[in-house]
Amino acid sequence: MTAQALYLGIDIGGTNIKSGLVDKSGQITNQYKRKTPQNLPDLKLAIIDIVNQAQAQVGDQLKGVGFSAPGQVVSETGVVHVGGAIPFIDGLNFKHFIKENFGLPAAAINDGKAAAQAELWQGHLTDVENGLVLLLGTGVGGGIVLNGQLHQGSHFQAGELSYMYASSSDMTTENAMGRRGSAVIFVNKSRELLGLAPGDGEEVFQVLEKGTNPEVTALFDQYCQDIVYIVHTLQISLDLDRVVLGGGISAQPLVLKGIQDKYDALRRDVPWFNDSFEPIEIGLCKYGSEANLIGAVYQLLIEE
Fold first, then answer.
1. How much is the mean pLDDT over the chain?
2. Which of 1, 107, 190, 249 makes the best surface tag, with the fewest CB within 10 Å?
3. Cβ neighbours of residue 237 closer than 8 Å, sequence gap 6 or more
4. pLDDT band at 2 (very low <50, low <70, confident <90, very high)
């Protein structure tokens, strides 16, 4: 009996590297997470270690590696141009790197597009003609589906929503959506307001649930409003049917509720928007924080 083919998905984020083994049906196992190194040599060593661990677990069953990363990732070549939240990966060729070190095929795709591939494959965008995946993390990743297919753009830069500005009067880094819509920055600012040491968002959302800190509540309201600004802008540009949210923070029920409430308020308070555009569905990615891993592997399967 032939052993089942397995593929390694590696999602390189601004904060963490996630990895997992994925089969041809999209089932994922053996997931791991580690901090993202802060320089290219250490990142390469981390990738080698992750692949070595996978090979030690499954041996010859490992048939390839799919990468998800921020920035302009040219899927045809596997090269990153402008690393987004990880600028030092600029110029890294994932395909060549894996081929040279392991003799395995590899694919690479932008993180937002990887999530969209997963949701298109067998997630919550399978039946959608025009949709959007929003990844809420260190920045804001986007994966756009047009006419039932992933839209990468002429230069593989479609969906780089972190570079969207909230207004033309302030086109600075601080006013870009990569910062205003950053879940990491929101959590860090909230923890500072609460006098907490750096950490994850659990304690922040406990406070939000209780409604005991008006400053943190106001910060969260603004965060949700900024995400709705992105949704609104793309809805009127692309006539979307559905938006699904991903990224670690999307696991918090308050996030979907907060964004839905702000979207409903926009439709209620702006008559022309409500009268001219049909309401769109806002939901969650089926695969949550696993979407990037599954989508990166699906990109490899498509190329093979």
1. 93
2. 1
3. none
4. low
- Residue 259 one-letter amino acid: I
Q: For 71-100, what is each residue's pLDDT tens digit?
A: 889 999 999 987 677 899 999 999 999 999
**Nearest of 68, 244, 232, 67 to residue 145 by alpha carbon:** 244
Interhelix angle 202-210/214-238, nearest 10 degrees = 100
Residues written for the chain: 304
Tokens of 70: 């921020």
pLDDT in tens, 107-145: 999 988 999 999 999 899 999 999 999 989 888 989 999
- How many whole angstroms separate alpha carbon 34 and alpha carbon 19? 9
Summarised one tens digit per residue, pLDDT across range 174-224 is: 889 889 999 999 999 999 999 999 999 999 999 999 999 999 999 999 999
Q: How far apart (Å, rounded) are the C-alpha atoms in residues 21 and 43?
A: 20
Encode pLDDT of 238-247 as tens digits: 999 999 999 8
